[in-house]
Write a structure and sequence with these properties.
mainly alpha; single chain
């Protein structure tokens, strides 16, 4: 009863609940939301890797393709703007925006950033996800994704803008950065602790590289973008934490159900061995037959259809008082071949007379 109550409520692990703060946990376990039992945490990481493996591979491929398209846009617009001037739709380098007249667009910088921040990190992630073992990736899949994807976002959006286009539109790359820190952790289903590292590193690098642009006397774009990014960072951390609570509860119920099933399977196998051993030589053939049927029914791999048929056989064999007598009372109302209405009224005695020539054993049980 206690085990069933734990499963019904989802509380499979006594030391874990869906509440974020729980007594008996260390501060590090509260921060990372890990189970108090290390064995449960190891099983959860394996389960999470199997569940999210395809998601992380597809996201890595999509991000690599999106980054390559972004750099193609940077290079094309940068070269066109350098030779023909800016236009109102530019989202890359524009010579009219820079405070340094002698500064020119250097496309080789973008090619270098494309390789270092758009191809290399995602290629490393894909190689690790495809080639590394399940045991290894269950521990390192999340940290690898956070380190390389987070580094790629910081490099492509923040560092690249500072080097190639330092006086570009702050709203443009600010919005791009905002979308990245919201969409990537949530779609990747990153743990809340790794999401915190992802967005906080992004926020720190953005502030460090753009301190001069947060002056309200010059423009309101810097302070506005910083405010939006800070609010988005907090929102993303809270959202991923709630999602992780749901996922850990789902794992707890799944793990508990598997544990209960394993226990029931072990008990059935033990019962099967016990019933098989009961068929001793001093038992009658009928008792041996009943014990054998029970043993087959206790086999965990017996399918439902076979189990139902064996259950009927067991019921028939267990009724030893009428072992050789058909259930005539069930046949009278359904109608028996060769029995007219008058014989049906006369009852089983008339039926015994009809069946006597073909069934000597049966008619002997009728008293003939």
């Amino acid at each position: 009863m206690q085990q069933g109550g734990m499963f019904a409520s989802g509380m499979v692990f006594p030391e874990y609940s869906s509440q974020v703060l729980e007594s008996g946990k260390t501060w590090s376990q509260w921060l990372t939301m890990s189970f108090a039992n290390p064995e449960h945490e190891r099983e959860y990481k394996k389960w999470s890797w199997e569940k999210n493996r395809r998601r992380w591979i597809l996201m890595s491929m999509a991000l690599m393709g999106w980054t390559m398209l972004l750099y193609v846009q940077y290079i094309v617009i940068g070269l066109v703007s350098q030779s023909r001037g800016c236009n109102s739709f530019t989202t890359a380098y524009c010579p009219d925006e820079t405070d340094i007249p002698s500064m020119r667009y250097i496309w080789k910088w973008d090619v270098g950033f494309l390789f270092v921040g758009g191809i290399l990190p995602f290629a490393i992630i894909l190689m690790a996800y495809i080639r590394m073992s399940r045991e290894t990736m269950s521990y390192w899949a999340g940290p690898l994704f956070t380190f390389f994807v987070g580094g790629a976002v910081n490099l492509n959006v923040l560092v690249r803008t500072r080097v190639v286009d330092p006086d570009g539109d702050f709203w443009n790359f600010g919005l791009l950065n905002l979308v990245a820190i919201i969409i990537i952790p949530i779609l990747a289903n990153l743990p809340s602790f790794l999401t915190m590292l992802f967005v906080m590193s992004n926020l720190i690098i953005m502030i460090a590289l753009n301190t001069g642009r947060f002056n309200t006397r010059k423009s309101l774009a810097g302070p506005a973008v910083l405010t939006y990014v800070c609010l988005s960072a907090v929102t993303t951390i809270i959202a991923t934490r709630l999602l992780e609570v749901i996922e850990r509860d789902q794992f707890a119920v799944t793990y508990g159900m598997n544990r209960i099933n394993r226990g029931l399977r072990d008990r059935l196998q033990g019962l099967q061995r016990q019933l098989s051993s009961q068929a001793a030589d001093f038992d009658s053939p009928l008792e041996k037959s009943i014990a054998t049927v029970k043993s087959i029914m206790a086999n965990p791999v017996t399918d439902r259809n076979t189990f139902e048929h064996l259950e009927k056989v067991l019921g028939w064999l267990s009724n030893s008082d009428k072992l050789f007598t058909p259930a005539l009372e069930n046949q009278l109302h359904a109608g028996v071949a060769g029995v007219d209405e008058e014989q049906e009224v006369r009852g089983p005695g008339a039926i015994c007379q009809i069946l006597q020539p073909a069934h000597q054993t049966f008619t002997s049980s009728c008293g003939f």
